[in-house]
Amino acid sequence: MGNGAQFLITTAFDLYIMAVILRLWMQLAQVDYFNPVSQFIVKITGPVLNPLRRVFPTIGRFDIAAAFLACALAALKIFILIHLQMGSFPYSVLNLVLAALQNVAVTTLTIIFWVLLARAIMSWFSQGQHPMEFVMAQLTEPMLSPIRRIIPPIGGLDLSVLVLIIIVQFIRVSIS
C-alpha cells in the first residue's frame, strides 16, 4: 500500500477521533452547548454517537459512548493500516485494544497541547470575543487554575499555560 493511502486513512480516522475526543472533553468541562464551535462538534459526532448512547450510558458527565467510539475508531484504524501493510493482522485482540488505548491517550494529549498553544497565541492578538477562544478557555481553565494556585502570575505573565504544556508533552512522550 502506498504512503498516500496510509496518509488518507490515518488523517480521516484521526480527524474524526479528535472530534469525538473534543466532544467528550467538552461534556466533561461543561462547555457552552450553544457556542458555534460546540454546535459544530455536536453535529459531526451526533449521527454516530446518538445510537451508541442507547447501548452505553453516560455516568455523570463522562460519556462512555464517546470514549468507546474513540477507542473503537483507533482500533479500526490500526487494524486497517496493519492489515493493508502486511496482508493480515498478526497480533492478538488484546494487543489491538492496548494499541488503540495508547493511540487515544496520545491523541488526547496532542489535542490538549494544540488547544493550549492556540489559546496562548490568541490571547496575544484577540480581545476575548471570538467563540473559539471562549471554548478554549472553558476547556483549559479546569487544568490551569490549580497550576495558578501554585505558580501565580509573575509580573503580569501567566506561566500556567507553559507549565501545563510541559507536563502534557512529558506525559505524551512517556507513553508514545
TrEMBL record:
Keywords from the named record: Membrane, Transmembrane, Transmembrane helix
Pfam families in UniProt: CCB3_YggT
Entry's Gene Ontology cellular component terms: membrane
Listed transmembrane segments: 7-26, 64-84, 96-117, 150-171
Superkingdom, taxonomy of origin: Bacteria
PANTHER family in the record: PROTEIN COFACTOR ASSEMBLY OF COMPLEX C SUBUNIT B CCB3, CHLOROPLASTIC-RELATED, YLMG HOMOLOG PROTEIN 2, CHLOROPLASTIC
Stated family: Belongs to the YggT family.
Protein name: YggT family protein
